Amino acid sequence: MRTLIAALAAGVLVVGLTPAAVASDSPPSSGPDVISAILPSHPLRKSPQPLPLTRAIRPLDVSYEYDGRRYTLKEFLDRSAAWGFVVVDGESNEIVGDHYFASNPGTRFQSWSASKGFVGTAVGIAVDEGHIDSIDDPVTKYVPELGTSGYDGVSIRDVLRMSSGITWTEPLNIPPVHLGAAAGIPVTEFAKRRRRGWEPGSRFEYSGMNSFVLAWLIGKATGRPFYRYVEEKIWHPAGMASDAVISRDHHGNDLGYCCFMATVEDYSRLGLLYLNNGRAGGRQVVSESWVRESTRPSAPFNEPDFENDDTGYGLHWWLGGGSHGDYLASGFAGQKIYVSPRHGVVIAKSTLATVLTSDSEQLVAFRAIAAAVAASRG
């Protein structure tokens, strides 16, 4: 049984906010940002062939019940402090619902741990291309610098499914890493200092450091920096329409565990890539087998709790409970990339801080929205 945990990170700063604006059918240019400004970043240049998303707003009839009360879509957006929100009908690639508060379609939002969906995808592509022989290889095959750490001998699979065995408590350990990186300490040093605390592959223990190790590994295995690999293998072929950035430390190490800054429409394009079994723009970006493996329980201890409708965990994706078959990338304070294969719907949502709605309530709301989109089709 898993509880949906979003990575805790430090140092958020709001800069350059503008009033809300109406989305246009043309790809948004880079706009004002809601970003982490304490770290430098690497650029992700927009795709030369952006995936078109046509704005065709529908009057969605959405309400849902949670904890004995019924809420409307507007109440959900208000209570969950949505600053950027898009609903995409994956059957037509239409934006059928959107909402912007003190922002606009060009605003780039902080992903926090929703970035892990990109990290997992990059691992899958590296496997597809033969840069990684198998996710059952030890991480030290590709990153020998971790040979004296708790990661020694740990499989890539166990790192992907958050079962690495390192000693870690997310809310306590991530802020010092983030602030240390801002102060000039290489994040690689934090990774090398981690120690073994329990048997890898025996239980779930969420750790942002696992995602950094994967980003580091991708750079070593492919011979290209993580950000460059993401740009070439995900950002461009998936058709991202706007420039974005990835935070890094002062030594050029991309964080991986957080801190993409991108538009909600581009976050939704990652969801569409998965909804379409790894295809975008007529090409296979990541293998269908990787999409399938990433979005199903990665171990018995990562099975969703169907009785309690609790989430499970795949390979860097959270899995919806019950029989819904949905999944999502999730970040601190309410950043979400939600995919409903049953209804053919993707939802991307960004906030500054969600204090009135829990992760479980947001999942209930997303399911109601996805069902309403399916019902609205002619």
- Helix fraction? 25-40%
Report the CATH topology name.
Beta-lactamase
Q: How far is the N terminus from the C terminus? A: 39 Å
- Level-2 CATH architecture: 3-Layer(aba) Sandwich
CATH class, please? Alpha Beta
Helical segment count? 10
How much of the polypeptide forms β-strand, as a percent range?
15-25%
Taking all Cα atoms into account, the compactness measure Rg is: 19 Å
Pfam family, one: Beta-lactamase
Keywords: Signal
InterPro entries: Beta-lactam-related, Beta-lactam/transpept-like, Diverse_Enzym_Activities
Domain Beta-lactamase-related: 73-351
Q: What does this protein structure show overall?
A:
InterPro entries: Beta-lactam-related, Beta-lactam/transpept-like, Diverse_Enzym_Activities. This protein is an alpha+beta fold. It has a single domain (12-376), classed as DD-peptidase/beta-lactamase superfamily (Beta-lactamase). It has helices at 73-79, 116-128, 156-160, 170-182, 187-192, 208-222, 226-235, 264-275, 288-294, 359-376; strands spanning 12-14, 33-36, 41-44, 54-55, 63-66, 69-72, 82-89, 94-100, 108-110, 244-247, 260-262, 279-280, 283-284, 312-313, 318-319, 327-331, 335-340, 345-351. Strands 4-8-7-18-17-16-15-14 form an 8-stranded mixed beta sheet, with helices on both faces. A 6-stranded mixed beta sheet has the order 1-2-9-11-10-3, with helices on one face. Helix 2 packs parallel to helix 6 and helix 2 (116-128) packs across helix 7. The protein is globular, with a radius of gyration of 19 Å. Residues 5-30 have low confidence and may be disordered.
